[in-house]
Write a structure and sequence with these properties.
alpha+beta, disordered N terminus, four-stranded antiparallel beta sheet, 327 residues
Length: 327
């Protein structure tokens, strides 16, 4: 029997003899994978995720990345906790109270750090003001005020004499006439009694005269401002020209009509440094501190350039200046 020999020994028995032209340009397997919709979704998600980190990276690095996961209670912190207890109770804390203070400190530190990680310190008006206050305290700590000299205090006093003028002071007793009880006769009754007091003061007993009142009968070395607080500005103004002792009046208060017996009059005068040194020193220190704080701020302010949106600034001004429309 004659055997048949295949024409092409390189081809498998079941392979066709001729290859199709499309077989040479068939896509590779990974090209087919890239055409899958799921792959498109994953690639797009990765791009968006990367873009988010690129835009928000500075915030995440500063706010969400913990600086440290270790809380250290140094000797200084422990002494602060003990000092707080001693200041409140006057003795060293027992071990259980110290442990409770430590636990509270740790709790506050944990919550504080977590709040910083979440950016809760950003755009908070209370925290902003507290930090500003701490900067002001820092400026005062770094620039201790010297004790003022007598010459500096005298110069400050000379520049502000009205602030330290010694006011006049009056000591007097009073007889009260009620307008509610006497009506329009209150002044006439007061003048009638004044004539008797001036003519025969030794025969008249002031405490037995006039109308009953809750007001004191004796006033000792009262300044005009103190008299105003007690009897009103009209009474203080009316007795201010009084320069002689004895019974005088009538004068008028918010309560009614009064006769007064002036027993002591101390005239007002410009103050000497010896009289007001304490007050002048405190005011000088306050003024000096204010000037130094302003200088410190100005040095910091000079580091910055400030830009204000002119349109946004002008808009509320224009609204405020616009006449209101009638409804």
């Amino acid at each position: 029997m004659q055997e048949t020999v295949p024409k092409n020994l390189n081809n498998p028995p079941d392979a066709p003899e001729d290859s199709s032209p499309n077989d040479a340009i068939q896509p590779h397997w990974f090209i087919r994978v890239l055409r899958e919709p799921l792959i498109h979704f994953l690639v797009l998600g990765a791009l968006l995720f990367g873009l988010y980190f690129w835009v928000n990276g500075s915030f995440l690095n500063s706010s969400l990345k913990p600086a440290s996961d270790q809380i250290e209670l140094s000797a200084g912190v422990l002494e602060m906790l003990k000092s707080n207890w001693r200041r409140q109770w006057g003795s060293n804390p027992p071990p259980e109270e110290l442990q409770a203070a430590i636990d509270q400190y740790i709790r506050e530190e944990v919550l504080y750090r977590e709040a910083l990680k979440l950016g809760m310190d950003q755009n908070d008006l209370i925290i902003r003001r507290r930090l500003v206050q701490k900067m002001e305290f820092l400026a005062e700590d770094l620039d201790t005020l010297p004790e003022p000299t007598d010459q500096e205090l005298q110069s400050y006093l000379a520049a502000h004499p009205e602030s330290y003028a010694i006011p006049s002071r009056f000591s007097f007793s009073q007889i009260y006439f009620s307008r509610e009880l006497r009506g329009s006769e209150a002044d006439a009754d007061a003048r009638k009694l004044l004539s008797q007091l001036q003519a025969q003061p030794e025969k008249v007993h002031p405490r037995e005269l006039g109308d009953r009142t809750m007001l004191p009968t004796q006033f000792t070395r009262q300044s005009p401002s103190e008299i105003t607080g007690l009897l009103g500005s009209t009474f203080a103004r009316e007795i201010s020209p009084v320069t002689t002792l004895g019974w005088q009046g009538p004068f008028h208060s918010v309560y009614g009509t009064h006769l007064i017996q002036a027993t002591e009059i101390l005239s007002g005068h410009p103050a000497t440094l010896a009289e007001v040194r304490h007050d002048v020193r405190l005011d000088w220190l306050r003024a000096e501190r204010s000037q130094r704080n302003q200088k410190f701020y100005q040095q910091l302010r000079d580091r910055y350039t400030v830009k204000i949106d002119p349109e946004a600034l002008a808009e509320p001004m224009a609204k405020n200046s616009a006449p209101s429309e009638a409804h």
